[in-house]
Amino acid sequence: MSFVLGITGGIASGKSTVVDFFRAKGFPIVDGDIVAREVVEPGTEGLKALEKAFGSEIIEKTGGLDRKKLGALIFHDEEKRNLLNKTLDPFIRGEIKRQTEEAKESNDLVIVDVPLLYEGKYEAMMDKVAVVYVTPEIQLHRLMARNKLTKKEALGRINSQLSLDEKREQADILIDNCGSQETTHQQVLDWLKENKYVS
């Protein structure tokens, strides 16, 4: 029986570090961010649906998606942002499901990396969900340093997601990333050993 572990966190919580560790151990990763890009490649049904919803001005002359124009349309408009999510959700969800099922055929453990897992109600697709957690102070500090943002800009991005404390309460597995990378990796390794995925 193949086990599907969903991994999520908040912006700058270190989720990618944890996912990279699973990848380095040889486990297949279904990456929600990559899927979201793939479903709007030129010629895809996802891109056609976006064009229908937002008009042809979001399509470049080369046939690709003009992310800048789309971004400008949705940035300050919650209604349009919701329309974007509603339009792409079936394509992204369907492709994540397809890739997960395919990976399950030949692997005991499949990692599904979805940044907005709880927000998008993806937990039903997972056997368990691991949340990569840091304190709000560490999250703010790391995001400001990483993206060269002011405190106000960083808080704006953090507050656009479900808080890490709310995600922590829903988590089946908590990976504490407040310390060093080694400490974080050790927690993942311990879980893998406990569940007999590595010896």
Automatic annotation (TrEMBL):
Q: Which InterPro entries match?
A: Depp_CoAkinase, P-loop_NTPase
What EC number(s) are associated with this protein in UniProt?
2.7.1.24
Can you provide one Gene Ontology molecular function annotated for this UniProt record? dephospho-CoA kinase activity
> Known Pfam families for this protein?
CoaE
Residue numbers binding ATP: 12-17
Per the record, the domain of life is Bacteria
Identify the main location: cytoplasm
Annotated compartments:
Cytoplasm
Q: Which reaction does it catalyse?
A: 3'-dephospho-CoA + ATP = ADP + CoA + H(+)
Where is the chain membrane-spanning? Answer: none
Q: What class of enzyme is it?
A: transferase
Keyword terms: ATP-binding, Coenzyme A biosynthesis, Cytoplasm, Kinase, Nucleotide-binding, Transferase
Q: In which pathway does it act?
A: Cofactor biosynthesis; coenzyme A biosynthesis; CoA from (R)-pantothenate: step 5/5
Fetch the PANTHER family from UniProt: BIFUNCTIONAL COENZYME A SYNTHASE-RELATED (PTHR10695:SF46), DEPHOSPHO-COA KINASE-RELATED (PTHR10695)
Which NCBIfam families does its entry note?
dephospho-CoA kinase
Q: Which family does it belong to?
A: Belongs to the CoaE family.
Job description of the protein: Catalyzes the phosphorylation of the 3'-hydroxyl group of dephosphocoenzyme A to form coenzyme A.
Q: What is this protein called?
A: Dephospho-CoA kinase
Q: Which organism is it from?
A: Enterococcus hulanensis
